[in-house]
Specification:
Length: 137
């Protein structure tokens, strides 16, 4: 794991193995979704987190949700950034870890990185229906 602590203001799309320290500003409502892969149900929510350089939405799944509480500070490691509908998100994923730390921190909510919309390159944009060739009999 990388030992460099990255500031929220320095995040950009497609970063991996991020280590950062953030304060939770708020935790959103929990939604239940059904996995397309195996049909199982999962709980998902977003926490608005940040540091003195900026703020971002952190996606939390299932048992990660209860580990985060408002106004607490966490040392996050093994996280990654991704784009969701053109908006930058921070995610813990399966390998990510969050450890509560006893630290005071100010959050710069004016520099919300999740509000910036990124253009998705055309080669990564999802297509509605893949092209399929019909079989001849």
């Amino acid at each position: 794991m990388s030992e460099d602590i990255l500031k929220i203001g320095d995040l950009k799309p497609s970063l991996r193995n991020i280590r950062t320290v953030v304060k939770v500003v708020s935790v959103g409502e929990v939604r239940t979704i059904v996995s397309r892969r195996d049909g199982s149900e999962h709980k998902v929510t977003e926490a608005f987190v940040g540091d003195e350089t900026g703020s971002i939405l952190l996606t939390l799944w299932d048992n990660q949700i209860n580990a985060f509480s408002k106004d607490s500070v966490y040392d996050i490691s093994g996280a990654y950034t991704s784009l969701y509908k053109g908006s930058l998100r921070l995610s813990l994923g399966r390998q990510g870890k969050a450890e509560k730390v006893d630290k005071e921190m100010e959050v710069n909510t004016k520099n919300n990185l999740s509000l910036k919309v990124y253009e998705v390159p055309y080669w990564r944009a999802p297509t509605s229906i893949p092209f399929r060739r019909r079989r001849r009999r």
